[in-house]
Amino acid sequence: MLAKKLFLSSVVLLFLISYPSVGASSEMWSQTYGGIEVEEAYSLVETSDGGYALTGDGGLFVKTNEHGDVDWTRAYEGYSLVGTSDGGYALAGTKNDDFWLVKIDAYGNVDWSKTYGGSEPDRAYALIETSDGGYALAGYTDSFGVGRHDCWLVKTDMHGNLEWNRTYSEGVARELVEISDGGYVFAGNNRLIKTDAYGNIVWSRTYDAETINSVIQTSDGGYALAGTKHNNFWLAKTDEYGVIPEFPSWTPMLVMVVALVAMIVVYRYNLKKLRGWATA
């Protein structure tokens, strides 16, 4: 009986040693993709089948299954990638010194490809699929605007046909979001710009930071910004107008409490003084 228990215990122990994190690590893995040249991934999306798609510098687009095994690869070089509502993908980058937008199907075949730009270099860094089924791209342009490296926002229809474009003085837009009112917010250098649905500026804010690399709209209608300040990570929370309050949110309440205490002290002092007069 003792020998049987020892045998069973040994089996269980061997199983636990062989699978130290059963139920957890079986879904964790690490993979590399590429060849002898330098490839750097810039953008990643989870796909509808539970896998992943990634693209970046080096001319490589990779689609994997849920374990990171390659389903297929294509020679597309993009800086920003989105999964589209039809199950395919769209990616934005640079081609022949112009903004480049390419739409591909779920198997990596090109549906269409468009470029936007002028005689000077133009670079796209951000891409979103918009609520109307079209696309918006952001980056910088040297071809248009009033100065070098002006922020540039390009809006297209669902087939990549240009609907409108706007420039916004000097800067490089690296992050773009469509917000709940149908407009757009994008970050350029240390500036946050809010536009209406047609790219017209609603407001613009500049912050004491080196760069803003990421922005999201928060559940309260404001924004959270991430970037670099004094060579450190920088995180800021703004209101719906891009304003960072000068004082913490609890400051008004503290001021009210102090004022109330002061009023009570003055009242009690005056009351005591009146009683002294009455006694005299």
Count of distinct strands = 19
Instruction: Give the averaged pLDDT, no decimals.
Output: 85
Kindly report how far apart the N and C termini lie.
102 Å
CATH superfamily of the largest domain: TolB, C-terminal domain
| CATH fold-level topology of the largest domain | Neuraminidase
- Work out the count of structural domains: 2
Shape: elongated
The value of Rg in angstroms is 29 Å
Largest sheet: 4 strands, antiparallel
- Would you identify the regions where 5 or more consecutive residues have pLDDT less than 50? 2-8, 10-25
Quick one: CATH class of the largest domain? Mainly Beta
Key words describing this protein structure:
2 domains, elongated, Neuraminidase
